[in-house]
Specification:
Elements lengths: L1 H11 L4 E2 L2 H4 L16 E3 L4 H14 L2 E5 L17 E5 L6 E5 L4 E5 L4 H10 L2 E2 L12 H6 L7 H4 L6 E7 L5 E4 L13 H4 L8 E8 L1 E2 L3 E9 L2 H15 L3 E7 L1 H11 L10 E9 L4 H15 L4 E4 L3 H12 L1 H8 L2 E2 L2 E3 L5 H15 L4 E7 L4 E7 L6 H14 L15 H7 L2 H14 L15
Parallel strand pairs: 2-4, 3-4
Antiparallel strand pairs: 1-2, 5-6, 6-10, 7-11, 8-9, 8-10, 12-14, 12-15, 13-14, 13-18, 16-19, 17-19, 18-19
Helix pairs in contact: 1-3, 8-10, 9-12, 13-14
């Protein structure tokens, strides 16, 4: 290992390699601090060629490489194991925005660029980069692509996968593949980039991407409504779809438990007085009349008693305050204590029934737990987190919740990825032929198993 570290230092220079224990610490554990590791060193390349050099040197030494962006993931997918024999490859020095085309609606950006900085650069060009989630101030573009990040705008713009037009990647043998094409239509052969989006660095390392931009909407309407139950929220979604169409960019379901946690730990209170389930809706458009249409949705929902109270933001500051309620849920839950997190999706129309059945199953099989359910109802993704006591077994709770997900034809990971957190659950719930196909792809692209081993797929 000492020889490899010396060769990496020669390839990267003094600023490109970290070896001191204090310097390694931030790269050694995940955001939730449940997967501690011990890297041999942290390589910090400043260019694609340097990424390729690191990968080649590690391959020659038979040492695994763990790619890492902002390390904001919730599944432990970007941290090394505790062996002290894995090299963390941090993309944090590759921050360039190589190009922005406001007419063609694209931007070319390096993997280490913080997502918010990429959003701001697009904004200065009068355009919008629609990828948006709570950790965007720390998360990096490459990590968002590697995890196929979801977030707050999926209902309108889709997952990150749908916003990637081209990729530059480094393969497990150090080969650089330049596919940075800003094309909307390209049927010339396999669309190979799709293999790497969402692969969590197990098939190749994203070093740059061409991302799709959209025109920045001129008008935004944000509303918070109290609803009697999730079934009423589903009817409200249907109403909003009919009246607001594809201007809807966020439709969030928030439980009473979530709001109570936010009030307790952040001192934020809902401006809607009624207790119970809440829905946060945001729509955006460049055409006039959006606010009037949103007011109509609110009035109709109240008339039909699918909402019991509601407020429509009068300013951007008020809209931000409404979003703060939703975006503070995760941190409030962390302050409350131990929880078992589930990032699941089911068909949108099945969400009320899923919530009912999962609650009944937990009440019977894990008494004393509390459910904190919230998330992106508009795209079928619910963060179904279970607050537990020390005596509760996390694996048993996973089996209970994911068993219900299976019965509704859902997925055990909607947007957070598998990482190392859900490897066993993926093997348990994914069809054997799908796991076998994934292993064939992994073997073809990373035959030595040196790219982020132990993530997504169990070690063979």
């Amino acid at each position: 290992m000492a020889d490899l570290i010396a060769r990496l230092r020669d390839a990267l220079g003094p600023a490109g390699l970290l070896t001191d224990a204090a310097d390694l610490e931030p790269f050694a554990i995940d955001w939730r601090r449940i997967f501690p590791g011990r890297p041999a060193c942290v390589a910090r390349p400043a260019s694609t060629d340097q990424v390729a050099a690191v990968v080649r040197l590690c391959r020659e030494a038979g040492v695994a490489v763990v790619p890492q962006g902002g390390n904001t993931g919730l599944a432990g997918g970007a941290v090394p194991d505790a062996s002290g024999r894995q090299v963390v490859l941090s993309l944090g020095r590759m921050t360039a925005i190589r190009a922005i085309d406001p007419v063609g609606l694209t931007m070319t950006v390096e993997a280490g660029c913080v997502l918010r900085l990429a959003q701001e650069a697009a904004g200065r060009a009068g355009r919008l980069l629609p990828v948006s989630f709570a950790a965007e101030g720390s998360a990096m573009v490459g990590g968002a692509i590697a995890a196929n990040a979801g977030g707050l705008n999926v209902v309108r713009y889709g997952m990150t996968r749908g916003l990637v037009l081209g990729l530059e990647i480094v393969l497990a043998d150090g080969t650089v593949v330049d596919g940075l094409r800003a094309l909307r239509k390209d049927n010339a052969g396999y669309d190979w980039k799709q293999l790497f989006i969402g692969s969590e660095g197990t098939l190749g390392i994203v070093t740059a991407a061409v991302l799709r931009l959209v025109a920045r909407p001129r008008h935004v309407a944000t509303a918070l409504l109290a609803v009697p139950d999730p079934a009423a929220a589903l009817r409200l979604l249907t109403l909003a779809q009919e009246e607001l169409g594809d201007s809807i960019q966020g439709f969030e379901l928030i439980s009473d438990t979530s709001l109570a946690l936010v009030a307790r730990h952040h001192g934020l209170a809902s401006p809607v007085g009624a207790k119970g389930w809440h829905v946060l809706i945001e729509a955006a458009s460049s055409l006039p009349g959006l606010r009037e249409a949103a007011e109509g949705v609110l009035a109709t929902a109240l008339e039909r008693e699918d909402a019991t109270d509601g407020v429509l933001a009068e300013s951007g500051q008020q809209a931000a305050a409404l979003w703060a309620l939703r975006e503070s849920v995760t941190e409030s839950e962390a302050r409350e204590g131990r929880s078992v997190k589930h990032d699941v999706s089911v068909p949108i129309t099945a969400i009320p029934a899923f919530l009912d059945e999962a609650g009944a199953v937990l009440a019977a099989g894990a008494p004393g737990t509390r459910v904190n359910a919230f998330g992106h109802m508009g795209d079928g993704n619910i963060h179904y987190n279970v607050l537990v006591e020390p005596a509760h077994d996390a694996d048993a709770i996973n089996r209970l919740v994911h068993g219900v997900v299976d019965r509704f034809g859902g997925s055990i990971s909607a947007e957070h990825g598998i990482g190392q957190y859900r490897v066993a659950e993926l093997a348990r719930h994914k069809r054997p032929e799908e796991i076998a196909l994934a292993r064939r792809i992994k073997a073809a692209l990373d035959p030595d198993g040196l790219l982020n081993p132990g993530k997504v797929l169990a070690r063979s």
